[in-house]
Specification:
It is built from 13 helices and 18 strands. The chain is an alpha+beta fold. The protein has two domains: 92 residues, Nucleic acid-binding proteins (OB fold (Dihydrolipoamide Acetyltransferase, E2P), Beta Barrel); 301 residues, BirA Bifunctional Protein, domain 2 (2-Layer Sandwich). Strands 6-10-11-18-17-16-13-12 form an eight-stranded mixed beta sheet, sandwiched between helices. It is elongated. It starts with 15 loop residues before the first strand and ends in a 20-residue tail after the last helix. The mean pLDDT is 96. 4-amino-1,4-dioxobutan-2-aminium adenosine-5'-monophosphate (4AD) binds next to strand 11, strand 17, strand 18 and helix 13.
Length: 431
């Protein structure tokens, strides 16, 4: 089949071409028939005049149902009144496969219905736009990491132990043992960064999150970076640059999709530029208390606290120096105040909250052994990780950025369920 993708029609104005796609809408007015065609790369209106086509083509029009796959031949011309800028005058239309009655109609459907039909819902203009922006973000991340000299070293998905706490582990039979689905590739990255200097991994991550919130998935994608001879401040600068680069790339390459989503891009175009405010945990607690939160010093920030706090700023903010007790075992305590760790959470603006978690890691063997004990983690499973402190330990830091949360924020979505083709949530494993 040699059809022209809609993304390339501007090269073919005025010459006969064939398009192939799906009829996502149509209407007739007497002797003229209008078909809205989409092929994944674009959308166009095709106009069929009874007088210009064969009786077979005219008859095929009458058979069209929503999402019928078709081939249309004709000539494309610029049409300023059309949202896509072009229109096709059709000389022939052929049905490839007629669609049965399409379950997603023009009427409003509830979220559960749409999620049950996710495999079809993906065809909507909105979902198409979100997935294209997701693709753009992924590409920009890989490009950014390469430009910064980080080497991709993927971490395993089957793991023998927890990285981010034992309460959110999925376990699975692994022959005669139990394996856990990875919560984070970080521990393995610490090994590869001692081999290659600066490394990253990017893959699926699993958390048995019991929370039913707009920002938790049980399976999500995370890009994690790890760098030797990096302290927690270098770490924040790197995160800042990554976020700025990502937003610039999306604005440059996916402006049309942002318009489709009716995303108000004021924040994206004006404040995602340079140094994001660094707010200490202590300051954050004081601010929150003034704003009416009942949070106490020593508590972790809840989702609501993050939302309230981000609304005080017009750009992303770092919260650093969390209490040791609310964070993971591997975070390095600040030598000047060992009750707090050299970590940061990056909170996205506009109420979105945490998109990145990062920290400097404990590089001292004894301290790391103590922390493993305090966290009641199985020592044997961590022997290899302790080796990294036995053989040439160095100051090192890293972070993880959640893809779905980044997509939700950049697209301006109110739930992560639309950020990934087939979301996995506490109450959803299908389709
Ligand atoms: O803050 P987290 O748990 O950090 C880590 O896993 C570190 N080991 C990363 C590192 O330093 N290499 O998770 C990092 C990010 C969060 O900020 C969030 O964006 C995302 O991963 N995330 C989730 N996204 C969707 N659903 C969930 N249940 C998520 N849990 C974390
Ligand atoms: Mg976190």
């Amino acid at each position: 089949m040699s059809s022209t993708p809609l993304s390339e029609i501007h090269y073919h104005i005025g010459t006969p071409i064939t398009l192939a796609g799906w009829a996502y809408n149509f209407r007739s007015s007497g002797s003229i028939f209008f078909v809205q065609l989409r092929d994944g790369t674009g959308r166009i209106q095709c106009v069929i005049s009874k007088k210009d086509v064969s009786p077979e083509t005219w008859a095929a029009c009458a058979q069209l149902t929503l999402e019928t796959s078709i081939e249309v031949t004709g000539t494309v011309r610029a049409e300023p009144r059309s949202p896509t800028g072009y229109e096709m005058s059709v000389t022939g239309l052929k049905i490839i496969a007629q669609a049965a009655e399409y379950p997603i109609g023009k009427k409003e459907h509830g979220v559960d219905f749409l999620m049950d039909h996710r495999h079809l819902w993906l065809r909507s203009e909105r979902q198409e736009a979100i997935l294209k922006i997701r693709d753009e973000i992924v590409f920009s991340w890989r490009e950014f990491m390469r430009k910064k000299g980080f080497i991709l070293t993927d971490s395993p998905i089957f793991t023998p132990n927890a990285c981010e706490g034992t309460s959110t582990l999925f376990s699975t039979d692994y022959f005669d043992e139990t394996a856990y689905l990875t919560q984070s590739g970080q521990l393995y990255l610490e090994a590869t960064s001692a081999a290659l200097g600066s490394t990253y991994c990017f893959g699926p991550t699993f958390r048995a999150e019991k929370s039913k919130t707009r920002r938790h998935l049980t399976e999500f994608w995370m890009l994690e970076a790890e760098a030797s001879f990096y302290d927690w401040q270098d770490n924040m600068r790197m995160q800042e640059e990554l976020v700025v680069y990502t937003v610039q790339q999306v604005l440059a390459n996916r402006a049309a999709e942002l318009r489709t989503l009716e995303r108000d891009i004021t924040v994206l175009t004006t404040t995602i530029q340079g140094a994001f405010p660094r707010v200490s945990y202590d300051d954050a607690i004081l601010q929150l208390q003034k704003l009416g939160s009942d949070i106490k010093h020593g508590d972790d920030l809840g989702a609501d606290d993050e939302t309230i706090l981000t609304k005080q700023y017009d750009r992303p903010i770092f919260i650093h120096h969390y209490p040791v007790d609310v964070k993971a075992f591997y975070m390095k305590p600040d030598p000047a105040n060992p009750k707090q760790v050299l970590n940061d959470d990056l909170l996205a603006p506009e109420g979105y909250g945490e998109v990145i978690g990062g920290s400097q890691r404990i590089d001292d063997l004894q301290l790391l052994e103590d922390r493993i004990k305090q966290h009641k983690l199985p020592r044997e499973a961590f022997e290899w990780y302790l080796d990294l402190r036995r053989y040439g330990s160095v100051p090192h830091s890293g972070f993880g950025i959640g893809l779905e949360r980044a997509v939700a924020w950049i697209c301006g979505l109110d739930h992560v369920r639309e950020t990934t083709p087939f979301p996995r949530l506490i109450n959803r494993l299908k389709p």
